[in-house]
Specification:
α5 packs parallel to α7 and α10 crosses α11. Strands 1, 2, 3, 4, 5, 6, 7, 8, 9 and 10 form a ten-stranded mixed β-sheet that branches. By secondary structure, the chain is an alpha/beta fold. The mean pLDDT is 97. α4 links the parallel β4 and β5. It starts with a strand and ends with a helix. It has a domain of 198 residues: Indigoidine synthase domain (Indigoidine synthase fold), CATH 3.40.1790. Helix content is 47%, strand content 14%. It contains twelve helices and ten strands. Bound molecules: pseudouridine-5'-monophosphate and manganese (II) ion (MN). Manganese (II) ion (MN) binds next to loops.
């Protein structure tokens, strides 16, 4: 019998992590999924085609492109494929493609959400749209505090996206375990979480599910480094008037510099943590 599949996104490869670390991390995440009993499916766009799984040569090409690759969400996915250029898929596009392929579980780092200053920018990630539309369980470390987390959580509720805490009551904030915000339900066992997710879809509720898996305590970005770097990165983005699709990659790159690489270490650790939990969930959902 074939093993349950876990989708992995590719924007984290092209826009989220530096080369050549991104190649190693992409392969390490696939191995985490395999070790936990599932089959990894990294999704990306090359030569006008959607790839479900990348060869070494294809992964190397995408990783080398870095931010020159098109960052594809729901609105620019089709034109990105048609262009023939290299493209990486965000959480939104990966969810859409995973569902199309019959994959029910997807591991990422953190989701995009409602940006700070949304009152004037109107910048809300298409990840929110996709979470409301595609029946895929997204395993994440929450969303990072570069976003407006209270508004992101409110929006998920409005869209009918369940937020399930893995062994936590708190909505995690990516580099940190806590945010002061609560999840909808807490699960301490994988089968119990799988049961709730199956229930959600079996009833005909159409949204995805956000599984919130906090970063391990020992891998958190420490205070005060975390808050200082975050505030500095946000201030720089505002000064330089960075917005739209460039904003998330800009803030991630600045966090790396301002924390002397500590943020990348935390990012990799939480990605691995999410890949492992996603695999266990995929196995439980099949059972
Ligand atoms: N969060 C991270 N690292 C990332 C991203 C989010 O910690 O690389 C990427 C994901 O692919 C996510 C996208 O779907 O950024 C959101 O971008 P935007 O805010 O432009 O929708
Ligand atoms: Mn945006």
């Amino acid at each position: 019998m074939s093993r349950p599949r876990v989708a992995l996104e590719s924007t984290v490869i092209s826009h989220g992590l530096p080369y050549p670390e991104n190649v190693k991390v992409a392969r390490a995440l696939e191995q985490c999924v395999r070790d936990a009993g599932a089959e990894p499916v990294t999704i990306a766009i090359l030569d006008g085609r959607v790839l479900y799984g990348l060869s070494d040569e294809q992964l190397e090409r995408l990783a080398r492109e870095g931010t020159a690759a098109a960052k594809l969400n729901l609105s620019n996915l089709a034109s990105g494929i048609a262009s023939g250029r290299a493209g990486s898929t965000t959480v939104a596009a990966t969810m859409f493609l995973a569902q199309r392929e019959g994959i029910r579980v997807f591991a990422t780092g953190g989701i995009g959400g409602v940006h700070r200053g949304v009152e004037t920018s109107f910048d809300i990630s298409a990840d929110m749209t996709a979470l409301s539309q595609h029946q895929v369980a997204v395993v994440s470390a929450g969303a990072k505090a570069i976003l407006d987390l209270p508004k992101t959580v409110e929006m998920l509720e409005t869209l009918g996206v369940p937020m399930y805490g893995w062994q936590t009551n708190e909505f995690p904030s990516f580099y940190r375990r806590e945010s002061g915000l609560k999840v909808d339900a807490r699960f301490d066992e994988v089968p119990a979480m799988a049961k709730a997710i199956n229930q959600h879809w079996a009833m005909g509720l159409r949204a995805g599910v956000l599984v919130c898996n906090p970063i391990a305590k020992e891998h958190e970005l420490k205070e005060p480094l975390y808050s200082q770097a975050l505030n500095a990165a946000l201030a720089e983005a505002a000064m330089q008037k960075i917005g739209g699709r460039e904003l998330t990659p800009f803030l991630l790159a600045r966090m790396e510099k301002l924390t002397a690489g500590e943020s990348v270490f935390s990012n990799v650790k939480l990605l691995e943590n999410n890949a492992r939990l996603a695999a266990r969930l995929a196995v439980a959902l099949e059972g």
